[in-house]
Amino acid sequence: MKKVLIINGGQNFGHSGGKYNETITKNTLEVLKSFGNVEVQITNVDEGYDKDEEVKKFVWADYIIYHTPIWWFQ
Question: Disulfide-capable partner of 10 in 18, 38, 52, 73 (CB 3.0 to 4.6 Å)?
Fold first, then answer.
């Protein structure tokens, strides 16, 4: 069984509300579930996180997927 950590780096602010990254994270989870041999943990950065717990997740994971927002004006 493969272990995957998904990090949703989206933030709820302005007009977007973080929906784009939330949608990508949900879709990624659904695709990974379809493989049937994948265990997934998700961190939503905007909800806060414990740094020690995140280190444990990084050590646990075989793969790490980081969905980061893209702001075209920066």
Answer: 18
